[in-house]
Design a protein that fits this description.
With about 150 residues, the protein is of the alpha/beta class. It contains five helices and five strands; from the N terminus they run E-H-H-E-H-E-H-E-E-H.
């Protein structure tokens, strides 16, 4: 059994309700359904833990706890902190837990707001998945599973 943390930053507690024209209407709770669709019975080998905070410090504390708990990987949507937080990037650099940066929207298509196209975290992650709505999380977990199992 592999355990993966679904970690969400500010304003992501209202996914499915907040700006559905950008973020869609699926909820975070729908991730296991999407995971089962793309991974089939392999999804039964995965345990998901969920954490969301609007506070940068709480996100750092949870990442440090993931290291202590020996979490197998993190699918991390840091929200706006992706584009502003050196502290989160620094934490990811040392905790030695594989992380995939996740975005519900395609941040590179959001040309009206170019700051959203920059990531401080990406350099510390094994990959980035963006633009597939809630499915982005399931794809990130699939990538993490493959990364940690070698499949």
């Amino acid at each position: 059994m592999k355990t993966f943390l679904i970690l969400n930053g500010p304003n992501l507690g209202y996914v499915g309700k907040r700006q559905p024209e950008i973020y869609g209407s699926d909820k975070i709770e729908d991730i296991p359904v999407h995971l089962k669709k793309i991974m089939g019975s392999c999804a039964d080998e995965i345990k998901l833990e969920f954490f969301q905070s609007n506070s940068e410090g709480a996100l750092i504390d949870r990442l440090e706890k993931a290291r202590l708990d020996k979490i197998d990987g993190v699918a991390f949507n840091a929200g706006a902190y992706t584009h502003t937080s050196l502290a989160l990037a620094d934490c990811l650099a040392w905790i030695e837990v594989p992380c995939v940066e996740v975005h519900i929207s395609n941040i590179w298509a959001r040309t009206q707001d170019p700051v959203r196209q920059k990531s401080f975290m990406g350099k510390q992650c094994i990959g980035v998945i963006a633009g597939f709505g809630i499915m982005s999380y399931a794809l990130a977990v699939q990538a993490l599973f493959s990364h940690v199992t070698g499949d």
